[in-house]
Design a protein that fits this description.
about 280 residues, alpha/beta, TIM Barrel, 9 helices, about 15% strand
Length: about 280
Amino acid sequence: MIKRLVWSLAGGTRLELGEKSLLMGILNVTPDSFSDGGEHSSLAAAVARAESMFAAGACIVDVGGESTRPGFEPVSETEEIDRVVPVIREIRSRNSDCILSVDTTKFGVAEAALEAGANIINDVNGFLLAPGLAELAAKHEAGVVLMRNGREGLIDGSVLDRIRASWEASLEIAFEAGVKEAAIVLDPGIGFGTTRQDDLEILRGLDVLRTFGFPLLLGASRKRITAQPSGLPMELRLEPTIATTVTGIAAGVELFRVHDVAENARAAGLADLIYRGGDLNE
């Protein structure tokens, strides 16, 4: 039986999870992201990319203005706002019903993005480095994605133990600030302070992580694990990325953050029939 959940988002939006896989399209408006830096740095290019991802099957578009690749160069809050807010505002003006996420770790950026029309805060630090984001999310009744970021080095133990410990710390901050349980999705943080073996263990342990009790978002698209086992270059990581998506669907993961929406959507359509149930319309 499919477990259906409702994700509560800013703007009164409610998104049903569980019946089918939902894709979050990645829109990096940065010059230095690890796989697509500079491709969508103009307003026109960014908006066109968002529209194409929605048309290809994305349920959410995640707009980010600062790279989080290993060794990334931080940008100022003002510069990040200048990158993401015009994009969010323009996408929202063209499609009042779309769902938008802001990929940021900064309070000011998240606040400006929510005021411009974003529904979700996607924080790769899971509120641990900027607890004020939790109060902001509660105030706006925004959806949140709380990622475990292995770069913070919380505790020893297996990678699954470390993820659970980080999630517990993030959830404590969220609940103390008044964020509702229905607003929260968790991300295990593939590629963030993890080894390739860690990432493999995360993918193998997704069914275990789902017992934590919250919907999950998997973000493995084009990351180092998708280069394995033969060291594939970035341009050849589509099919391995799809393999991680299907692995997640088999484990019951609800959301997938991807660069290549159309291809992942086609794979997810059949994988949903296999693993989530349903009948063919013949």
